[in-house]
């Protein structure tokens, strides 16, 4: 049981075995698993509801790019059998409804505290425990701290001069008003053409009087081929769920039906490749492309065959050749940035009320009272939607002042890039766990597969520690150094680092350029984590 009392200063003080920061898919499952160990556990969540990413990203068109039958928890067969997904790809409201259902079904909310933003975490080496402080003044003490703070939870509006002067309304995709925004009849500007921009642009175009899209870098997008859930497909899937889920755990991206490819794109002739790409295009989704050939993400010539196929599609869809040219990506291999999925994205540029503005050639200089001024001219707007991304992967952790009493802050320890062991723990920061952190496959996988694997590994570790009467676990600096080196070596053997993506922190000025995810695949990674545990937590110092 959690114990709460009030110390002399009137501060609320709570004592727990495990404190979890973040009430998204990771934090909620951690609560469920760790509570089952009989530990006192509580989730602290900044939002007024659970759901994390799916709570905040309420922009029009927000939708998962992994099929809903895959992008769901696998830990309860009753849950996965009973839940009905209405569409092939879940929308934000559908996924949020699912998460809320899970929270209710497993009675999680009694140990979730909403509207509480953790700002500080201190480890006391004398007591081997963490003390967390919330912005609201609460102090929470716990032996273990699990950071389930998310990878895309620190929205970033670029530091444009003059934003405060703008007379219209502005929004960020990751902080969208819960009541929605009606753009009917308005002159709207969307800044950014990543996944969020590509999802919102077709829908905003349908409402706005005129939409200006401010694009710095053209992005590859594939058709989602979304649609209502087909009963037969659902039945087949659910009938094979246990096998599918198990198979998914051993694939590169954690998605069943897409095992590791064995053939080179260059080993087949052009006609055969085209046939395959066309089939994948018609089928919809991105994982098919990412796993179609074994050199898609490691060999430029192989990658170029698919990139050119998609460029041809863009040229065929977009009627104005000048606009098509601007929309055609040419600065990064396909798949090295998040490969977007869309519904009618390129077609949207054939509308009379949509204008593409090239802010690579003429960058945005300032926001004015009336709109956006680029190096070329001013655009008058009533509303601006920033789809400019996040301080990804490390942003939420760097925002909390995490440190061992008297030691450096995690943000400083990571000034040159994140240092983790297995992406789960940090040398110099005992009893701290991160879910789907940098150095793990997290963001390069079906997130829930990775979340479940991380949470289960952590709960196995805490159970082991309890059984062996251990109170402190800390990654050895040498093990972490070797892990980071390995993560980098795997990253460098691929084409990923070539792209200026949020995977390398390129969208945040001053952020060190480090390719952060571990991309050897979730299957390889799972095995590595299991081996570490089986070998008595190799690479960790465990003490009483
Ligand atoms: P992303 O993928 O980081 O995209 C951000 C977009 O905003 C991208 O097109 C950027 O252009 C653009 N951007 C950022 N700063 C500027 C400035 N200063 N001027 C013009 N354009 C700018 O974020 P998303 O929210 O779309 O997606 C994040 C993830 O969420 C996604 O990958 C999925 O996993 C879900 P750039 O490419 O940097 O030139």
Kindly describe this structure:
- This protein has 544 residues and is of the alpha/beta class.
- The chain has two domains: 12-154 and 392-543, FAD/NAD(P)-binding domain; 163-386, no CATH class.
- It has 17 helices and 21 strands.
- The protein has helices at 25-36, 53-56, 77-82, 92-105, 195-207, 231-239, 241-248, 270-283, 287-290, 300-317, 321-327, 345-348, 395-399, 410-413, 447-467, 477-492, 522-534, and strands spanning 3-6, 12-21, 41-44, 112-113, 118-124, 129-134, 139-147, 169-172, 187-191, 210-215, 221-223, 340-342, 354-358, 364-367, 371-374, 378-380, 383-386, 401-404, 432-434, 472-475, 540-543.
- Strands 1, 2, 3, 4, 5, 6, 7, 18 and 19 form a nine-stranded mixed β-sheet that branches. Strands 8-17-9-10-13 form a five-stranded parallel β-sheet, covered by helices on one side.
- The two termini are 23 Å apart.
- The model has no long low-confidence stretch (mean pLDDT 96).
- The protein binds ligand NA7.
- Ligand NA7 is lined by residues 152, 158, 173, 191-197, 214, 216-217, 338, 359, 364, 387-389, 500, 502, 507.
